[in-house]
Amino acid sequence: MRAARPNRGCLVRALQDGTFPMTQTTDVTAGEAGDPSQRLFRRTAGTDPGQGFSALVRITRMTLGYPGRVAVALVSTLFAVAAQLSIPVLFGRAVDETLILAGDDAAGRASLVAIALTLFAVSVARGLFTMAQNYTAESVGHALAHDLRLAVYDKIQRLPFSFHDRTHSGDLITVGMLDLEGVRMYFSTALVRTVLLTLLIGIGAWMLITTDPLLGLLALSFVPFAAWRSSAMQLTLRRTWLVLQERLAILSRVMEENLAGIRVVRAFASSRHELGKFDAASAEALALSHDRVSIRVKNTSAMTLAFFAAMGLVLWVGGRQVAAGEITVGTLATFLTFMTILQMPVRQLGLMVNAYARASTCGARLFALLDMPVEVDDKPGARDLEVTEGTLRLDNVSFAYAGSDGRTAVTDVSLTARRGETIGIVGPPGSGKTTLMHLIPRYYDATSGSISIDGQDIRDVTLSSLRHAVAVVQQDSFLFTTTIENNIAYGDPYARDRRIRGVSESAQLHDYVLGLPRGYETVVGERGVSLSGGQRQRLSIARTLMLEPAVLIFDDSTAAIDAGTESRIRSALRGYAADRVTLIVAHRLNSLMHADRILFLEEGRVVEQGTHEELLALGGRYKALHDLQMRPEGDVLDEMEEAAT
Ligand SMILES: Nc1ncnc2c1ncn2[C@@H]1O[C@H](COP(=O)(O)OP(=O)(O)OP(=O)(O)O)[C@@H](O)[C@H]1O
């Protein structure tokens, strides 16, 4: 019976409680319980205050790595504040001078002109210093972001496969883009603005209060309210922004999955169901966006009201004082001008508070990623692998994936393969063939036992030398969006054309490429010419053949190639295989029955091994598989029908 489709309400609820129906790998919370590092990527999860504070200290220290630019930014801020504070004073004096100019007083006029010119010069200076402050502060942020971006990229390259198994690539990209942005803004929006606002409000308040305490307090009365509302607004906006980010991430994953699986969606006529998922995610994002606009509008209006109320009070009280001759009109103008100047920075105080909050959480997440241990890495003092005899040896190798509760995917596998030998590995799906192959180039480290090449334990040699010596033609043949030639020469960008053509011929790709209008210059990959599965696999084989490794692994990499082409590839590689150990994982026995030895894996263990003939004579699992594959299809179907009746 077909399960009922979830209605829209269910989908919205599912989005809210994080149980949105998606594949396991796309669920942001997947694996979180067993793996604390995954909490790193929950954007709405709170950061430990201690971690947040140490992140701020660390960003500040990193910022000091650009002392010249930091000094220029801070000095420019000081001068910009000084210029800004003198504007209301000069303006007040200009007003008083104007009033004194009742008669045609030449000296008074000259003084007014001098004040006007000074005011102009101070305004220009203020503009120039503010420009220098903004430019240098931003440039410090960008330089820091550049360094961190490289560090994040480098880290992602070095993090173990087990980490990538559990982590959605979109989450890593988010850390590398959004979190980095939060850290980038720290110096200009948090630190420099703190200096600016402290000086501006501090010195300004002192100037006003010493001039007239009552009027000064009235002029500053809007500051605490505006600062509070602005900070509260920004922090609320930030919280909703984080939720919005998660909603948008879900939206983009729904879209990504739909694009990647467009054929499945169409084939199952599920467009309406998929549209429902997308609609639910989008409606959530829309509702949040409305909330955000409403928060912003309400708070901005409240701050404007507070400012004009304070201004009204200053005018009322100040006007009475002017009438009573206690202060001059110029002094009142100074107070009003100062309020106008102070208004914008105070209203933006929330941005500063937000910049601290953002930098602390973004920084904590970013540093958690950067500080993550690289499980598979070079040992201190590791030496390059030296291949002499070219012998590969596995001694009682076992392996369990992280989070598998100790259930081993590979158990006690031992094997010795000498140069020139070909070893076939066969077994039912999930029996551990790929896992075993991934232990040899150290994509994962064996949980117990050891693997060595020419007597050197692979954990004692450098990873780069090991991966030059062990090449894997993967199950999934990933192509870069570039020419066929560049894709083949990926492991050796300076390879001569002749060599590229040679490996392409061995992989039975050459004739196909020559048939393309642009030949080896044809661009492939996501947006280029689409190659068939078999052509992609042949390209992937050609790319690996460029490496001249000591151990060559074919991980079910000829499954999409027809038997005739595969046999031609095998013949072409005969000489090549004589110079190295070749391991062939395959489901089709035709692909490996020529091997010198064949291992039959079941539930991670080698249950049978020998040559093709020996295994047939043994009459065990290999023979059963052989009989199944070699029998005419009709016989198998008859047998299945018989079993069913
Ligand atoms: N990255 C992973 N994380 C956790 N478990 C995994 C991972 N990859 C594979 N496994 C599990 O390890 C076991 C062996 O998988 P493996 O891919 O090695 O089998 P296989 O024999 O190569 O299968 P197939 O023939 O289908 O390619 C399976 O139970 C599988 O679910």
Describe the protein.
- With 645 residues, this protein is of the alpha/beta class.
- The protein folds into 3 domains: 8-18 and 32-370, ABC transporter transmembrane region fold; 392-479 and 534-610, P-loop containing nucleotide triphosphate hydrolases (Rossmann fold), CATH 3.40.50.300; 612-645, no CATH class.
- Helices cover 62% and strands 9% of the residues.
- It has 23 helices and 10 strands.
- The strands form 2 sheets. A 6-stranded mixed sheet has the order 6-7-8-3-9-10, with helices on both faces. It has a 4-stranded antiparallel sheet with strand order 2-1-4-5, covered by helices on one side.
- A hairpin with a 2-residue loop joins strand 4 (448-453) and strand 5 (456-457).
- Helix 3 (67-100) runs antiparallel to helix 4 (106-158), helix 8 packs antiparallel against helix 10 and helix 10 (271-323) packs antiparallel against helix 11.
- Residues 1-36 have low confidence and may be disordered.
- Adenosine-5'-triphosphate binds at residues 165, 401, 404, 409, 427, 429-435, 556.
- Its main location: membrane.
- It is a multi-pass membrane protein.
- GO terms for molecular function: ABC-type oligopeptide transporter activity; ATP binding; ATP hydrolysis activity.
- Keywords: ATP-binding, Cell membrane, Membrane, Nucleotide-binding, Transmembrane, Transmembrane helix, Transport.
- It comes from Oceanicola granulosus (strain ATCC BAA-861 / DSM 15982 / KCTC 12143 / HTCC2516).
